[in-house]
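Note to self: keep these together.
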Amino acid sequence: MSMKRTNVYADPEDLAIIKEAAKRRGISEAEIIRQGIHLAAMANRVWDEPLFSRTFEGPGRTPSKAEVQDAVVDAVRRETDPGTAA
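Structure:
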């Protein structure tokens, strides 16, 4: 993977924590910083497509606790009893 050099300003206390963590984990401080940059980039990424593109039929309201429990019980029964049709 190609890397690009950049300069950033960091809090001295954060750098001390990174230094300790790198020593403890046996990796470079730069690797910890790269991991942090990757996490920040992914946390702020905007995706071109929605995570869920399918829609599901339903009653158009939030199901009650009993309805959810019934649905789970039915699903478990279908999984454990091969003779039960969906």
